[in-house]
Amino acid sequence: MTSSHSPGLSAPPHYSCMKRDPHSAARAGVLHTPHGAIPTPIFAPVGTQATVKTLTPDELQALGASLILANTYHLYLRPGADLISSLGGLHSFMRWPAPILTDSGGFQVFSLEGLRRVTDEGVVFRSHIDGSEHEFSPEKSIEIQEKLGADIIMALDECPNPLDCEYNKIALARTHHWAERCLRAHTRQDQALFAILQGGIFADLRRESARVLTSLDFPGYAIGGLSIGEAKSQTWETLDQTVPFLPEDKPRYLMGVGSPEDLFEAVERGIDILDCVLPTRLARNGAVFTSHGRLNLRKAELAADPAPIEEGCGCYTCRNFSRAYLRHLHKSGEVLGLRLNSIHNLYFLLSLIHRIRQAIFDGNLADVKQEFLSQYIPVEDTKQRYGNLARRRKPAVSAKSRIGNAS
Amino acid sequence: MTSSHSPGLSAPPHYSCMKRDPHSAARAGVLHTPHGAIPTPIFAPVGTQATVKTLTPDELQALGASLILANTYHLYLRPGADLISSLGGLHSFMRWPAPILTDSGGFQVFSLEGLRRVTDEGVVFRSHIDGSEHEFSPEKSIEIQEKLGADIIMALDECPNPLDCEYNKIALARTHHWAERCLRAHTRQDQALFAILQGGIFADLRRESARVLTSLDFPGYAIGGLSIGEAKSQTWETLDQTVPFLPEDKPRYLMGVGSPEDLFEAVERGIDILDCVLPTRLARNGAVFTSHGRLNLRKAELAADPAPIEEGCGCYTCRNFSRAYLRHLHKSGEVLGLRLNSIHNLYFLLSLIHRIRQAIFDGNLADVKQEFLSQYIPVEDTKQRYGNLARRRKPAVSAKSRIGNAS
Fold it and tell me: So what's the ipTM on this one?
């Protein structure tokens, strides 16, 4: 029950590129961290409250997860960074032996519309749990993240509506200033502090963000402010206008993106790390991935269907259970259903990203993409627009309950 | 995804006694069924809706479960017995390869106060899910249980308030008549149909119930109508007045009982099988068993406690997680907490019943009991009285929602 983590004794995280796709900006590599190597490109399941919902660490590792994300905002409020630190840090607390990434808390705080006030100094906000007042400054966010002890931590950023040009200009200056303060405040050499680029869907702002932040020489760069209101085409255009201005020798992280079809689009544009609540959130809503698209387990026609979610799928769920049983569990509100669907969806996405990585090594990424997309029917783009901040990344709290017990 | 179960081809379930305790009525044996041997005495976890809440079949087997219970009332209403039958029966549907016991549905129907009407013919009741009207007769209960296909099935009984003497007299005659009709209706030779003794806390009624039902020569006998309102001392006195009138060569099942201290009391009185929702229900409420008594994980003093629930416990939860982490999961409403607590509580009870069985073979049951009780502080008897039917056995629906989605 004590920590296996020794802050400061490990080599700092660093990235090595191993192979480039000749036909796109895709690349395969490894991000070395004190808790092990992360093969890239990689998809990171989200463990907001120090648990990837419904699953044990053993199950996550069996599914092929090599990096998970936890949320600074949630853990700061409950159970608290000092408590986690006193128990040996996040790895020890949640018994996850492999790499962890924590976000800065900025995204969650900015999702608390009406409950926060931003100044150049930082953000004052009210807890969604009990309404108590708190402040995040760049220095405070780094202090909390050092206590949590993740391998990769994020600079505090301001995350505006990506379509609001005027506000993005103001927020961008603040984000850059905060990134500099985070860099100065950061002391743990065993953690990699990534900067977050902002600038909405505006090419000139994104370029400016890349210029300013790369001049500060961070060990990695995240692209924030996307997948939260813009059309998919705008997401990819923005990536096209941003990634070429990032250094080749540093990892690139696209925040909050992770539909199956998105993995190809992002990796082709040079992204190394993605995270998204989608696979586990869909699972809890009874929606599961198949090679033909999403399947809704609530459908009446599945009531007596003896087939697994997907024939030939190697996950525990498909090796054992029928669609009929999964539908029954979902309709009966049984927790086992949430688990089995989560196992399948994460297995699907993690297998897909591993297949994409292998395709980069094999030099046939375009073929693998075409083969996948010839079968897979994505949810229509109109349904993929995000009217609020609550869809892909983990907001502070769901739309249902603003002040209350978020689970 | 097809059934491995071949109705009618297997030998009928039968019991062999292997060892008797010289100082009590305790006995160790084996109940042979078409899905494997059940070592007795045994504790059966409850899987109301074809799932022991939060756990996979693999986990249950790893915990040492060799028999689970499922509820006829719930499965009849959702997803339906015909549907489960079309998918190969309950074993195949829920992928549980070992023995299953189904109750008759009577207990749940009688827990639907105000929503049911009983006659000598059977019970008319309204579904707690959608209010639709249904009828259970003895024949109907057997028909459903044959479709579900459990190894052990139960005769339809009427389960009254155990303290109401006059009503117990009326209900007893009905229960006996229904048992006879169940016996006539039952056709599947691979299933053992157990009768249920009733009679409340009244020794003469219990003796009468034993006399009538044993004359019909069932392959096993259950003691129903206890642990639902009477004091603990009355439960054990009733058992003292009942078990001696049951045949030695048939298994005896005490329904809805299963606190750790109860296991000793019941087994000493000659009980072979027990079931109870307690370990999994307590787990979901954040209460876990230790060798010193129950521990409430909500307690503030556990917030930073790095110890496991119990030092030296071999369960997955205790081998990996601190009380602090389990408390955090519980307070955050995280499903993983329900799982980890359920794993611990079932491991605790199943290990205890295995220890009790070994003690019978070793001839030192009294010593093992004394050793256990010298440390274990039970919840006070006053708190163990049951004001309604909802505590130990699975009622049709929790007190919270009468008509609605029971989970």
Answer: 0.94
